[in-house]
Amino acid sequence: MTATTSFHAAVAATVLLLPPYAWLRRGRPYGIFALVILLISLPGAVVLHAQLTAWASPPVAQALTLLFAWGMIGAGVHLAALVTPRLRSAPFRLGMSVPGMTFIATGALGGLWLLALAPVRGAFALAGWTPGSFFGWLDLVPIALGLVSIATSARLVEETVRVRFGDEEPEVVTRLPVERFRGRRVAPEPQGPVLRIVQIADPHLGPWQPRALLERRLARLVEDPPDLVLLTGDFLTMEGSGSRGALAAALRPLGPLSGRTFAVFGNHDHEAADEVAHALAENGIRLLIDAEAVATTPVGPVQIVGADWVGRERREHIRALLARHPRRAGHLRLLLLHDPSVFRHVPPGDVDLTLSGHTHGGQLGLVSLGLTWTVLSRTAWPDHGFFGLGASRLYVHRGTGFYGFPLRIGVPGEASRLEVVLDPQPARQ
């Protein structure tokens, strides 16, 4: 049996056997999920493999086929293992989960890319032109994007982010300037009182961010203890939700900061609400489910309102919550809101600063090049950075992790320390 035949056999076996197995072992929803993932990724992967090996030299074609076969086997084993989701050992993650999820992501990207190239190929064929290896090189684009996505997804950008309220009061949600100090660059001391916040958004404990790695990252973030640590939801993946106690262990660096740590649920947290609530409580992190808290900080008292994630009637939900917990005189007023698209429903000026995540920064964009554009830039979701609506401000964190497949392209994760520069006068009334 040739390597190509083995690859095709692995594809056929996975498509035929995995969805029924997933359905029988874990139920209909997961069986359908597995089938959809395969249907999205495998056509592109199979065609991409055929295109690449057609123009490559025999040794290169053999190596590519072995690489594709490894990815296919990894994808099948990873999806099959999720019938009993839990965090796996490092050899399993590195040998199966990481290459498997990378294969799925590359196959999905490859399918889209090959569809985009189809009209160009057709035009060349109709014209009778033979472009040689031209399309062979273009077919490498999804592979290159897959490698870029792994590099971007696996790293976090450490930075100090400084925001100021200012006098602008835009009538619609508008991106505002923000200062970012990255790498070894030291930020000059700001003028005026400063509230120092560490926000933790979308850590997604799982194969790409196992317990020990998340624990190290959190420990580094709070080495210089901030005034507040605010967690804006989506703590787990499928694997993380099936590993009791793992999230509590990962959050241990926040334990000594009890009294200044507050959290809300994201959409994925409702899939394992008890596990997340237990992990937060074990580390002295106060969970705000449509509730408020008051924290004492060096810049004065801070009122923190935490909004639970809801899927329907979100405008009514957020307005009722804010009305139920009105502004406290002399307090800075913060809102923890997992999904930033809800910010447009916050009455202008009712909240000083909202902190959100959820978007993973837009996932696909030009942030790595120092630009703000992402695929979400023209949508209802503020994707990343600092925004204003009336006198209210919003900061959208790019996320500490991601869910499932490594599809951060040009939008790295964020490990930031937020400096909120306040007016010298007392907090807003």
Summarize the structure in words:
With 429 residues, the protein is of the alpha/beta class. It has 11 helices and 14 strands. Strand 6 (261-263), helix 10 (273-282) and strand 7 (286-287) form a beta-alpha-beta unit.
Helix fraction, binned, reads 40-55%
The biggest sheet amounts to: 7 strands, mixed
Number of domains: 2
SSE string, helix = H, strand = E? HHHHHHEEEEHEHHEHEEEHEEEEE
Using only CA atoms, what is the Rg? 24 Å
- CATH fold-type name of the largest domain: Purple Acid Phosphatase, chain A, domain 2
Approximate strand percentage: 15-25%
Report the average pLDDT across residues. 91
Set down the secondary structure blueprint.
Layout: H1 3-26, H2 28-55, H3 58-81, H4 90-127, H5 134-139, H6 141-154, E1 156-164, E2 174-176, E3 179-182, E4 194-200, H7 211-221, E5 228-231, H8 238-241, H9 246-250, E6 261-263, H10 273-282, E7 286-287, E8 291-297, E9 300-307, H11 314-324, E10 332-337, E11 353-356, E12 385-389, E13 392-396, E14 413-421
Structural key phrases:
single chain, 429 residues, alpha/beta, Purple Acid Phosphatase, chain A, domain 2, 2 domains, 7-stranded mixed sheet, 11 helices, 18% strand
Offer a concise description of the structure.
The chain is an alpha/beta fold and 429 residues long. Helices cover 41% and strands 18% of the residues.
